[in-house]
Amino acid sequence: MNQDLVRPERFDGENSTRWQEKVKLFLTSFHLAHILEDDLKPIPEEKVDDSKELKEKRKKRKEGDYLCRGHILNALGDTIYNAYWNIGTTKELWIALDNKYRIEEASNQKFLIGNFMDYKMFDNKPIMTQVHELLNLISDLNVAGVNLDESFLVGVIISKLPSSWNGYKKKLKHDEKKHTLESIQRHLRIEEDSRIRESKDKQTDIISMANVVEDEKSNNYLGLRIIINLRIITKTRRRIKIREIATTIKNPVIWHEIVAKERKIFKIKGIK
């Protein structure tokens, strides 16, 4: 078997569980992984009257232990190699590495779990950007050997949606469909795009309404100015002019205010 295809990367002190799995796979390809097993039976110490079979077995065990230890040392980074190269047997070396770095990894796992559980989403930041940050934390957990159920992760993502998403959050919680990490991302992306479009449409509507109000103000002012200028005309002609000007005034409230004012000044009757 080509060793280059399965040789593990050099261990630098991080992700020890993953490194151990790769080393065991590598040793298995050479039929050496059994040397690391806890139930490996020890070979009796050498005696003068040992049988030929026992001598051969002892020799094979020593050769296997030597090769196995060499492969493990070869998979260590320089700093760690310098600290552990003088430890006796393969099993002793393996246990020493496990005791040292599994504890550190456990502490790192607690740190990563804390970061994941404490993560909060906010309304002032794009949802998908925050979802991707949360997925990166999940990836870090997987690398550290913390594998969480996908349904649980989907539930956590939904529960962390900000307050402006409460309605959609409730909808997802009551949805009978079982979402995956991929499908929940797709749904959130579609919802966020829809909200962005609606926000742009509302802004356009507000601008259009502002323009209409400005036009109405202009027309009302023009109409009122013309009416005031026509006060020198007779009452009969004024009634006609007021009706003509009313067609340029879009706001009926403004129209009735103008008519009421003109009635009061000229006591004109019959204008509606």
TrEMBL record:
The species this protein was found in: Acer negundo (Box elder)
Pfam families cross-referenced by the UniProt entry: Retrotran_gag_2
Higher taxonomy: Eukaryota, Viridiplantae, Streptophyta, Embryophyta, Tracheophyta
Protein name per Swiss-Prot or TrEMBL: UBN2_2 domain-containing protein
